[in-house]
Amino acid sequence: MSAPEPTRVSYLGPEGTFTHLAALFAFGKDAQLEPVASIQAVFQAVARGDTPRGVAPIENSTEGSVGVALDGLLENDLQIEAEIVLQVEQCLLAQHAELSAIQSVVSHPQGLGQCRGWLHSNLPNAELLVAQSTSAAAQEAKRDATVAAVASSLSAELYDLQIVARNIQDVGENITRFVVLSHSKPFRTGNDKTSLAFTAPHERGALRRVLEVFDEASINLTRIESRPAKQQKLWEYVFFVDLEGHVEDANVKQALTRLQQMCGMSKVLGSYPRASSLLTRP
Fold first, then answer.
1. Does the pTM of the predicted model rise above 0.85?
2. In terms of DSSP H, where are the helices of the chain?
């Protein structure tokens, strides 16, 4: 009897990104983890069936939501299968420890944003450059001695760079939430979270009436935010909500039925087990 094939998972690469760490936590070292060049590419790989699952960052406690991931959830017929909550330690990596020789700092926009204050205080004259991922930034630092990268300590190991400074994020408790994407819908566990998106009529009191639906159903919302509705009229928005409960719970099911009647668009993005703990690098 042949051994089962390893789970294939797309993630934002190259190796050493925080998404890579999240995928390792979720699926283990035996999984076939396949790096792709962008968050959009993670969604596309799962949507096309290139890999059955993907891992993407969706929210950071310092910088807020990852807009391209929210767009990916709206634009693709995928489900959030699980969430991973990871403590993020940002490091400054370079070929050497001489801050005076660093002319530019490169990282993913979230990485630069999370370390904005430290970079301004310690490298005020360095040019800040954007990369597709923190590991892509580390690769750039490996090629050029005048470049430093904001990236993980794992990237330092993988790309043979010095850790010039650790924990350079401006907020000590720097947490990133990742989601596992797939075509499957997890079973109810009794400790679940549901993510959904909806549009409200562009009229006075519309959002209040929608939110009352959740209150009347005794549903606790853990997150709500808006994002421009790209396919709608100017200044109209899509609202993203996380709530406690599963779509198979009676009160959640009732609220979603009412939501469909009230909103021009409503979409369940996933109903999945809540992350049980905060993960740090082993």
1. yes
2. 18-27, 39-48, 67-75, 109-114, 116-122, 134-143, 153-159, 206-216, 250-262
